[in-house]
Amino acid sequence: MDIGKAFTFVTEDERWLTKIGVGALIMLFSFLIVPIPLLIGYQVAVTRNVMKGVERPLPEWDNLGQFFLDGLYVIIALFVYSLPLLLLFCIGFGVTFLPVLGGGSEDATAALGGIAALSWIVVTCLFILLALVLAFVSPAVFIQYARTGELGTLFRFGEVLGIARAHLADILIVFLVNFAAQAVLSIAITILAITICGPFIAGLAGPVWISVATGHLYGQIASKAS
After folding, report:
1. pTM metric for this prediction
2. How confident is the model over 71-96, as a mean pLDDT?
3. How far apart are CA 173 and CA 144, in angstroms?
4. Is 91 exposed, middle or buried (0-12, 13-18, 19+ CB in 10 A)?
5. Residue 84: which residues within 8 A CB-CB, separation 6 or more?
6. Beta carbons of 177 and 217 less than 8 angstroms apart
7. Has residue 72 got a pLDDT over 90?
8. What pLDDT shows up at residue 199?
């Protein structure tokens, strides 16, 4: 995988400042929730352009409706894939109340407390395991959607898991690169704190840049998958 290209391809576009600037402006209003699908859809568009070998894969912000739908579909799919985690969380939260069922009996309360503690440990281990699985499946969801453009295909669990399994090493690299980029961005924001606008600009444009770089890396994996 060409990690360097994923972070430098942006500046090869003559309109990169405008495109990243628009993304940063949308990022500014992400607290309104609605812009979040737009940003995810834009990342999907980058993935799709890289997969297709487009010379300048950084898209224009001229198809907001499609970006929103693409991002919304990916969010829906990721929510469905995260349902087992939500279920485990509810179970873990519920077992903490088992000792209450002991009523006034100290022995029953102690026994139920032991069961609750053991159950909580088991649920926590399963939660961590499933969270790791989801971390590898999520990029596969992006790649599957970039390839097909159809919501239904995101629930072909065998295909999605197959992508994750076949490109496990590449997905791990993307995860580590993304983590490192986030760390560098945090350091940059801290250093720029001596200026007035530096942290504000970096805090908005930085995540957009990392997002499109990640989209580029997903596109590289999608090219292999194709």
Report:
1. 0.87
2. 90
3. 18
4. middle
5. 130
6. yes
7. yes
8. 77
131-136 contacts, C-beta under 8 A, 24 or more apart: 131/85, 134/81, 134/82, 134/85, 135/175, 136/164, 136/168, 136/171, 136/172, 136/175
Mean pLDDT value of segment 53-67: 92
Taking each continuous run of H as one helix and of E as one strand, the counts in the chain are 9, 0
- Which bin fits 53, alpha (ψ -120 to 50), beta or left (φ > 0)? left
| Alpha-helix residue ranges (DSSP H) falling in the chain | 3-8, 16-28, 35-52, 64-81, 83-95, 106-148, 157-166, 168-191, 198-225
| Two structure tokens written together for 122 | 């088991």
Amino acid letter, 76: I
First-to-last C-alpha distance (Å) of the chain: 15
CA distances from 56 to 14, 45, 98, 142, 205 (A): 9, 12, 58, 20, 19
pLDDT mean across residues, the chain:
89
| pLDDT at 102 > cutoff 80 | no
CA pseudo-torsion sign 158, 134, 85, 71: negative
> Which candidate, 165, 163, 29, 154, places its Cα nearest to that of 80?
154
Are the C-beta atoms of 142 and 218 separated by less than 8 Å?
yes
Q: Alpha-carbon distance 222 to 176, whole Å?
A: 18
3-class SS string, 121-146: HHHHHHHHHHHHHHHHHHHHHHHHHH
Pair of tokens at residue 66: 């499609």
The per-residue pLDDT for range 147-184, each reduced to its tens digit, is 999 999 999 999 999 999 999 999 999 999 999 999 99
